[in-house]
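Shape matters. Shown next:

___
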Amino acid sequence: MDRVLIIVTLGFALVFFITRQGTRITKERAYEILIAIYTFSCCFTRLYLPLIKGSGEPCGTFGTSLAIWPFYLMSFILIWIIAHDKEWRIRRPNFGLLLVFTGYAAYALLNSNNMGRMQTVVEVFYLLSFAVFMYLFANSFSVKNVVNGLFMGLAVTVVLHFLLALLYPVMGFEAAMKLFDNEAATRSDDRVGAVGTMGHPNVLGTYASYYFNFFVACFFTAYRRRESAVLAGLSFLVIVLSASRSALMASVLAFILIVVCYVYRRYKLLSFQSFLKGIIPVGLLIALLLMGPLSFLFSDVENLDEMTTSRLMHYYCGFEIFQEHPLVGVGLNTHLIYLGENSSAVIFEQVFDMTDMWQPEEFMFSNPIHNIWIILIDELGLIGFLPVLGFVIWYIATFKQRTRRSRNRYYNILNISGLGVVCCWLVQGNTDWAPLTPQVLTLSLMFVALSLNRHYAAEEHPEFESVEAAKRRQLAESKEEQEEEEQPATLEPA
């Protein structure tokens, strides 16, 4: 029933997008509608078709089933666009990047410590397929089409998530929690959170933090500024109603990083101006919010203590895996299988106080480790993890360079969104595994991949005026008007 409702909702959204454009829909508008409906479809965690269901073994962050996701169908549409509209005029693929992906796939599958190769196939198949999809996507649309389509799709997503969050938990209508996912679950009664279409409050909070960064980027680049401000506000409310503390902190720190690195990009990151005009005022405003209206999320000391203990136990498991296989890890998407076969909760009683914990063994060996960086270093080992960490550091370090090289404001929206996503990985990834779920990666990887597209950065759209250019133009116009008024009137002789 949940998938039927999803299809009906997507149908209504498609009709809305088409009618909103009027009777004359150009090819460019049709592309934007296609991007919008695909983007909207990404928010439904149940919108996939399992091909091969895995065994009953504990599943990693990618699950145990080989599945078809919406971007597979979208890929066939993109191939048709490239053949029909582009006449196969596409850019050559990056063979170096293809070699990296292939190397990682072989490295994970041939790992002698891998105890669940089928689960590794699930993750490798998803990541390689998504890489092909992004190659087709970038060759099919201009950066202007992409941003316009993303804005339309994510705007509808925000509104739907906000309405569902009002139904539950604000109004207490529990049936709304399972409308789009009949397997959705929330937390205990002490800290309920909105689920939306994502199946769990933490997943919703993670996904919402990504589109929050997108609308913040739109606001700072003066792209549909009023609408962006409203949608960014609604996105923040969705994060709050999800009661995901890690997503809230990640969004807050991502916002500060965007202000420092983009709004005050003319100053050095550690300069006095950056602290005085950026970090300090924004930090004070956020501190007032966290100590005031949002303090309820951090007031439950017992819950925080239990969550901290649970995560420390998981981190201890990850440390044990790293000690045993520090170089090559245990294989992608398989750390839970390894834990189940090689660990026991008995040792935790000697280290942690487990008297008040409910079924600690079930929590430990049925949930992925609540830290994506520990997961990556355990599954890839140092050989596979260090390049990933190096990429993250390089991405943040080169953000200003990418911004300076491009005069395209549409591209800068993607660039800023990618920076926010990577910041959320660094912050929320230390306390949760939701950023590594395939439902969430469809959006986060899209922002990061598109922000690294050099051809998008090279495109120019003079009709899109920046905030600084608008201010200079208005100042020049006001000076001209003032000079005309100050000129003395001359009388011509009769």
Summary: The radius of gyration is 25 Å. The beta strands are 49-52, 66-68.
